[in-house]
Amino acid sequence: MSTTTTAPSPAPSGSPSTVPVKTAGADEGRIGLRANLRHIGALARRNLLQIKKDPESMFDVLLMPVIFILLFVYVFGGSVGASLGGNRQEYVNYLVPGLMAMMGLNIAMAVGTGVNDDFRKGVMDRFRTMPIARSSVLIAKIVVELGRLMVAMFILLVMGFVVGMELHGSVFGLLAAVALSAVFGAAIMWIFILLGLSMKTAQAVQGTAMLVLMPLQFGSSIFVPTQTMPGWLQAFTDYNPLSNLADAARALMQGGPVGDSVWWTLGWAAGITLVMAPLAVAKFRKKA
């Protein structure tokens, strides 16, 4: 008795066995600029809706400029203002541009903790299964945080004028100082995004960030002139990008000589972005 073996018939066209499966990783390199911008806009809207649902997340942006202005002006303004050859009002003119440089750092720290929290909640895992560029998720975060930074800058400037700040330069110089602070703040955000992707908890991100922020902020010309500092500390402040940013913002707002501070600040921002952005995107792609 013989047996007949029937060969399996080919699957019909369009059946699941013949439909190619598209993956996010395979399509990422073929995403066009227009689609990428659309993804960034959708993700930024998602982040804005999160803020709408949790308005308490704006407390740092709304209150931090007020607290810093009142604290430093009325605690240190008299003594530091005298060292500048004037009074408390002289210190206000010195302090506000420096605080503009500091705002970006504090907002950037929130980016790192937010990315870390999204990963712990599984939100980022869902994004990584979608056919979108990995960078669009992180860029959307930066776009929204830049919006928060602009709100903080506005409140800072309003408080500065309330306590007596005078604008000796032009309005264009003021806008240029805000734009320069935003560019540098966006660059710093890539560092904290990478930190948020590398640390296990948001508390660890915040603690490590403070260890980095404190020396950078107080070892600079943000709060006080550097001429009275020890020589070794002055050498550090000369290479501190926050000093360059603060000095550039003061010159732009008060009409003084800008010098090389603007170009040094832009150079630092470009260098940080070129190094940290690819590292952050690669870490986001590979993070388990």
TrEMBL record:
Superkingdom in the source lineage: Bacteria
Q: Which InterPro entries match?
A: ABC2_TM, ABC2_TM_bact-type, ABC_2_transport, Nod_factor_ABC_transporter
Q: How does it sit in the membrane?
A: Multi-pass membrane protein
User: Per UniProt, what is one Pfam family of this protein?
Assistant: ABC2_membrane
Give the transmembrane region(s).
Answer: 61-82, 94-116, 137-165, 171-197, 204-224, 262-282
The record places domain ABC transmembrane type-2 at 56-287
Residue spans with biased composition (Low complexity)? Answer: 1-21
* Region: Disordered, residue numbers: 1-24
* Subcellular location field: Cell membrane; Membrane
Q: Which UniProt keywords apply?
A: Antibiotic resistance, Cell membrane, Membrane, Transmembrane, Transmembrane helix, Transport
Q: Which family does it belong to?
A: Belongs to the ABC-2 integral membrane protein family.
Mind telling me which PANTHER family this protein's record contains?
A: NODULATION PROTEIN J
Record's protein name: Transport permease protein
Species: Streptomyces pakalii
